[in-house]
Amino acid sequence: MLRYAILIVVILIISLQLSVISQPDDVYRPLAAGIRIEAARRVDGGYERGYLCSLGYPAYTLYPYTYTRGYITAYHCVQNGYTTVFQPYCCDDQYRIGEATIFGTNIIDAAFIDVENDYLVTNLVYPVYYEFPNGLTATLVINDYARSENDIYEYVAKSGATTGLTFGFAYEIENGPALYCGQEGYLTDLYAEHGDSGGIVFRGSDINYYTCQDGECEITVYGIIIGICPMYLSGYGFRNWTLFTPTFVIESQLPVRTYLGG
Known about the structure:
The chain is built from two helices and 17 strands. It is mainly beta. The strands form two sheets. The chain has an eight-stranded antiparallel beta sheet with strand order 2-1-5-6-7-4-3-17, with helices on one face. Strands 10-11-13-16-15-14 form a six-stranded antiparallel β-barrel. β15 (216-233) and β16 form a beta hairpin. The radius of gyration is 17 Å and the shape is globular.
């Protein structure tokens, strides 16, 4: 009971801080999907800086791994030995949040970050507090995730540490995920840039004045941003698409499941 009481106090404190702090590259304790992370490689006497990316959705491990909580991000964010993860930036140990321990395949660009302290893992999504035009503020809280291609709808949103919260559309979803630019997923017109990789993708209609109740928007996770995919798509022409890999594809290959809090 004491542990949960401490957790509640910590969340209340960070909630007060987040009402003022609004940048994805600020320090977030506890953590939130979509904020800045930097991976580094351990070298003699310290760290070698690696990749700037975004924190994806919260998850927990399955057998044969010991149960632990953490986050999904893109595998290319933590490859080549750059597995020690900091938030927001390397290389002070006080900002170290965990270690990437589970990795995807050559067509599943996803990895699991084992967060050192469970209480840091939450189901919050950056910017955490979303303000509607009428002034209503709602907390963005993950409460579900896509378990199959039937759960994916066209209107999507993403939260990444470079470009923040953006909205757009997914294309050819009726065909299910396919291989695009060597990765399995969906193409979207979501605006994203370098450093948004690994950020969370979710159902765009979840942020809606009429459906967000009691000051809370319930978020359904769709997956993570992989990157920009330049290609021709029949009926739409050639363009730089933003590719995301869905949760059900990631969880079919990695022994993890989406963490919904509790």
